[in-house]
């Protein structure tokens, strides 16, 4: 993540100051920093495998180098710093971590070496400890602009027995130029930075309690004559954070935490390049997700209203109500005993075709593509679910309505994929209907023959599958064009399962484009039937099965696409004569 994480402190003598910062270097280290690793450390780092390897840049500066570095450094002069404003000792080269997976270096020091970065960090530090604070002066806040970067700031207090009010004010800030990325990282940064703060406050509290136990400052101050506050503390107005926490390795630990924070925050969010407009499946999935979020919000609101209106139960009534809970809470116990899916599953369309046989699979696939109801009866719910997961890949997402497993028959308008237990009775009109197909999975007798293609698949060899329908598909029937192309891909053994999946995606996109053209032509433009027939001929979909398929797939178009077409037609520019 291209960001800088810094620890800031409000000094009572010098105001807001940057104590420690960690930045990311993608290129070789700048002059004066890149030679900081000794040869021995470089060789040791190269021998290790992967991960972040931390080392201290221990190259010592000569007096002349130290003087030149001090004069050219963008940071404050030594005369403007006290113990509370200083983190690393004079001449300390800082810390560096090497991430071999990405060839990135994480460098920590008191101030950034680059003057522009120093100015950005300095301004963020001042704002985080002066004007940009949340109520109570302790907590997270977001601020920034395009010119100086955007900042996530979390202010907090550290206990100090010698400070005014027995506490000092600090902040941890994360600065980056990408506002959207920083806002999306808010929950992650808040949790991790809060953990670092809790650790610092815990160490400081132990030191504070020990000092107060040995020499209580509150009573001593009350008994001391009133004098200017800074003078009565005998020169101890500024104390370093290492003194407050009694941790000599504090800065090395902070470097490790900040480096990990930058790496982890950069790895959790990735960008995807989408070429062209989103597919219909993507739009439908986004719409379904939005509907689910709205339903959950309305459900939560209704539950809150019911809780407010619910009368207060007596102890006996409450006990009676609680006795009913185990039946519902047993679902949670079942989740705790979750087991991986059994092996009696279909792995792909090719696998299903081998198990059912070519003729039975073609009949089943024809009904799926036409939008007829597919009923699957079996004792094994995992088997039914795996079958539906495989079959649904033949359809657009908007055309899929699944009830995975039920103990009663559901009408076709509710679902086109229905899983049933073996004892459920299917109505006679459904069994004789040409708009439904039934697949029954019976336990095969031991002496019976295994279905074709199951010799090497022992998990499905115990089942015998029977596919029936009121309108069986004749073997010599042409069928929809997309079905013939699907079967050609499935029977081509030179194509792997992954390649076949991509072929299905391309075929669905091709026919969804035809569906869009037909929808606009018939529903939006309201053309006559003669023109529609000519269009179907141009699209190569004039056959009966192809027309039925297009009409069914039209129901899977996204609401976004439909509303876009209707708004385009109703716009004034669209109605102007051409």
Automatic annotation (TrEMBL):
Residues 86-558 form the UDENN FLCN/SMCR8-type domain. Keywords: Cell projection, Coiled coil, Cytoplasm, Cytoskeleton, GTPase activation, Lysosome, Membrane, Nucleus, Phosphoprotein. Residues 294-308 have a biased composition (Acidic residues). One of its GO terms (cellular component) is cilium. The keyword Transmembrane does not apply. The keyword Cytoplasm applies. Belongs to the folliculin family. One of its GO terms (molecular function) is GTPase activator activity. It is found in: Cell projection, Cilium; Cytoplasm, Cytoskeleton, Microtubule organizing center, Centrosome; Cytoplasm, Cytoskeleton, Spindle; Cytoplasm, Cytosol. Pfam families: Folliculin (PF11704), Folliculin_C (PF16692). GO terms for biological process: intracellular signal transduction; negative regulation of signal transduction; negative regulation of transcription by RNA polymerase II; positive regulation of TORC1 signaling; positive regulation of transforming growth factor beta receptor signaling pathway. Residues 63-76 have a biased composition (Low complexity). This is Folliculin. Residues 31-82, 294-324 are annotated as: Disordered. InterPro entries: FLCN/SMCR8_DENN, FLCN_DENN_C_sf, Folliculin, Folliculin/SMCR8_longin, Folliculin_DENN. Interacts (via C-terminus) with FNIP1 or FNIP2 (via C-terminus). Component of the lysosomal folliculin complex (LFC), composed of FLCN, FNIP1 (or FNIP2), RagA/RRAGA or RagB/RRAGB GDP-bound, RagC/RRAGC or RagD/RRAGD GTP-bound, and Ragulator. Interaction with FNIP1 or FNIP2 mediates indirect interaction with the PRKAA1, PRKAB1 and PRKAG1 subunits of 5'-AMP-activated protein kinase (AMPK). Interacts with HSP90AA1 in the presence of FNIP1. Interacts with HSP70, STUB1, CDC37, AHSA1, CCT2, STIP1, PTGES3 and PPP5C.
């Amino acid at each position: 993540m291209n960001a800088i994480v810094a620890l800031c402190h409000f000094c009572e003598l010098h105001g807001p100051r940057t104590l420690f910062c960690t930045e990311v270097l993608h290129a070789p280290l700048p002059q004066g920093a890149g030679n900081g690793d000794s040869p021995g450390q470089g060789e040791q780092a190269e021998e290790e495998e992967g991960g972040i390897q931390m080392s201290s840049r221990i190259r010592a500066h000569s007096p002349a180098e130290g003087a030149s570095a001090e004069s050219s450094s963008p940071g404050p002069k030594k005369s403007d710093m006290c113990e509370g404003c200083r983190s690393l000792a004079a001449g300390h080269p800082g810390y560096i971590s090497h991430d071999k997976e990405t060839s990135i270096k994480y460098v920590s020091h008191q101030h950034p070496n680059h003057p522009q970065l120093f100015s950005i960090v300095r301004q963020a530090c001042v704002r985080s400890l002066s004007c940009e604070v949340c109520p109570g002066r302790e907590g997270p806040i977001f601020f920034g602009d395009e010119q100086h970067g955007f900042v996530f700031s979390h202010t907090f207090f550290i206990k100090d027995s010698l400070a005014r009010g027995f506490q000092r004010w600090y902040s941890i800030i994360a600065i980056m130029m990408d506002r959207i990325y920083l806002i999306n990282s808010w929950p992650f940064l808040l949790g991790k930075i809060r953990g670092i703060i809790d650790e610092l406050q815990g160490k400081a509290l132990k030191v504070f309690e020990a000092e107060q136990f040995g020499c209580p400052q509150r009573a001593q101050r009350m008994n001391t004559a009133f004098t200017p506050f800074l003078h009565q503390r005998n020169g101890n107005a500024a104390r370093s954070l290492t003194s407050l926490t009694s941790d000599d390795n504090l800065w090395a630990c902070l470097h490790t935490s900040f480096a990990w924070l930058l790496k982890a925050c950069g790895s959790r969010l990735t960008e995807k390049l989408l070429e062209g407009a989103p597919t219909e499946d993507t739009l439908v999935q986004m719409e379904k997700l939005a509907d689910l979020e709205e339903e959950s919000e309305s459900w939560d609101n209704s539950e809150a209203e019911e809780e407010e209106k619910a009368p207060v139960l007596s102890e006996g009534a409450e006990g009676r109500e609680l006795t009913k809970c185990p039946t519902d809470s047993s679902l949670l116990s079942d989740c705790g005993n979750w087991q991986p899916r059994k092996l009696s599953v279909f792995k792909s369309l090719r696998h299903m075709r081998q198990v059912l046989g070519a003729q039975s699979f073609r009949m089943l696939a024809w009904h799926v593509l036409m939008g007829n109801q597919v009923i699957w009866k079996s004792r094994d719910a995992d088997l039914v679910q795996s079958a539906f997961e495989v079959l649904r890949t033949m359809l657009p997402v908007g055309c899929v309505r699944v009830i995975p497993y039920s103990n009663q028959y559901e009408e076709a308008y509710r679902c086109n994929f229905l899983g049933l237990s073996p004892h459920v009775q299917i109505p006679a009109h459904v069994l004789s209907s040409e708009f439904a197909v039934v697949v029954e999975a019976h336990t095969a007798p031991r002496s019976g023959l295994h279905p074709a293609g199951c010799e090497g698949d022992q998990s499905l060899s115990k089942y015998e599958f029977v596919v029936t329908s009121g309108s069986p598909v004749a073997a010599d029937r042409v069928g929809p064009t997309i079905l013939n192309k699907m079967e050609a891909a499935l029977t081509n053994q030179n194509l792997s399962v992954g390649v076949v999946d991509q072929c299905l995606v391309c075929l669905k996109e091709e026919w969804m484009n035809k569906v869009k053209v037909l929808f606009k032509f018939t529903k939006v433009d309201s053309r006559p039937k003669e023109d529609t027939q000519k269009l179907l001929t141009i699209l190569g979909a004039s056959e009966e099965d192809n027309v039925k398929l297009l009409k069914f797939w039209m129901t899977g178009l996204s609401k976004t696409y439909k509303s876009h077409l209707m708004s385009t037609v109703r716009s004034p520019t669209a109605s102007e004569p051409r």
